[in-house]
Amino acid sequence: MLKVDGNERARGVSHVLWMGGAPCAGKSSMADLLAARYGWRVYRCDDAYQAHTERATPDEQPTLYRAARMSWDEIWMRPVDVQVETEVAVYREQFPMILDDLARLAPGLVIAEGAALLPELVARVLADPRRAVWVVPTADFVWARYRRRGDWVDAILQQCSEPEECFRRWMERDIAYAEHAAAGAAARGWRVMRVDGSRSIEEHAREVAEWFRPTLQASRD
Predict the structure, then answer these.
(1) Coil/strand/helix, residue 120
(2) Where would I find the beta strands (DSSP E) of 143-208?
(3) Domains of the chain with bracketed CATH
């Protein structure tokens, strides 16, 4: 893992555009549209999670190490506030690994997306707020989206002893986490986009592109 101070870390990820937020907001789809339109690469925190858990140790990343080895019951049957606190702690431990991954990528713009990109973490390396946006779903959108859940959600719930209760707490965790991320960005005066289903993924992606445009233009001048 890189052993550098904050300024060096910031320089190491100066090629990154940040899209944080919460699950179920369409971040991955937006990132794909932007990457296809502008030739950016996409770094997905979720895709890197497995590799990071395999590298985690009980001494250096104790929360990440434990969380990766919990059953679905152990994850979802905890009180919602405990789930959110644990999720934040997991991402704090994972973030240095994410920075290492990003710093090792070849030159060229990268859009990093994922719920792991909490404002308080990105703040350590963000030089320009116009290079970051946080995309969060409304509570109604979370419930509506997951009610149309696919096989992957059902596969998880089938492993739970109380599927309906696990599902309820899962939804409440995602909603609470979204508010945590949004509050962290808003407190810093940073951009928060709310997704409520009234606009398409394409419309949201265009809004993100417009938000990034001034800093991208400045980097080319």
Answers:
(1) helix
(2) 192-195
(3) 6-220 (3.40.50.300)
